[in-house]
Design a protein that fits this description.
With about 210 residues, this protein is of the alpha+beta class. It has 4 helices and 13 strands. The strands form 2 sheets. It has an 11-stranded antiparallel beta sheet with strand order 6-5-4-3-2-1-13-12-9-8-7, with helices on one face.
């Protein structure tokens, strides 16, 4: 069971990463489309999603609960189907912890270091913090951008990843956020599709 959960989480985190390239900064917030400028400032949320992964000839599906507290603090809970167990990746500004339902635990100073320690894979840092919100990460080159009529990103390429945002949903009055995010690696047989069926955002309290 642990092997299956580890494989699920490992492949999911492939979806969180891009490949190392020379960085190219995003435009200033003032020059982004209106919705993207607003979403750029959003750094806390809870989302529930179904994650489908295809790697080589293997297909995996799981539920994901993503709790983002600040830009650098979050918890991802990966839930295997049919009650086969779950695993959590909990991260802070300078540490990351791994725990599964069988009691196995591990810790490192970064997600990249932990994955290398546990799985032997030296992967770049996550980019999905941006992609899941319908934004481009500032850490990778960007190309082939297309937009929906409302100005939301529809398709782009960053590094070796083809990114697609087929549909968005209105969340509260301020945000349009993706309902589906599809990642396809251009050099390896790997793709990840996030179908998001719930966004919960922190309540904004107005100043007196």
């Amino acid at each position: 069971m642990r092997k299956q959960v580890v494989m699920c989480v490992a492949l999911a985190l492939l979806g969180l990463t891009g490949c190392a390239h020379q960085s190219q900064n995003l435009p200033e917030v003032a020059h982004l489309p209106a919705n993207q400028a607003v979403v750029t400032e959003l750094n806390a949320w809870t989302l529930q999603a179904k994650l489908g992964l295809v790697a080589d000839q293997e297909r995996l599906s799981m539920q994901v609960l993503w709790q983002q507290e600040t830009k650098d603090t979050y918890q991802l809970t990966f839930i295997a189907p049919l009650g086969q167990g779950q695993a959590q990746l909990t991260a802070g500004p300078a540490w990351v912890r791994w725990q599964d339902s069988q009691g196995y635990r591990a810790q490192a100073t970064s997600a990249q270091a932990l994955l290398k320690q546990e799985l032997g894979w030296d992967l770049p840092l996550p980019a999905l913090h941006w992609w899941i919100r319908g934004l481009l990460t500032p850490n990778l080159p960007q190309a082939h951008l297309t937009y929906h009529p409302q100005g939301d990103l529809k398709q782009a390429q960053q590094g070796d990843w083809l990114l697609e945002w087929p549909t968005y949903t209105q969340v509260n009055a301020e945000y349009r956020l993706p309902r589906k995010v599809r990642l396809t690696h251009q050099q390896r047989p790997l793709s990840a599709t996030w179908v998001i069926y719930g966004w919960t955002l922190p309540k904004v309290t107005s100043s007196p």
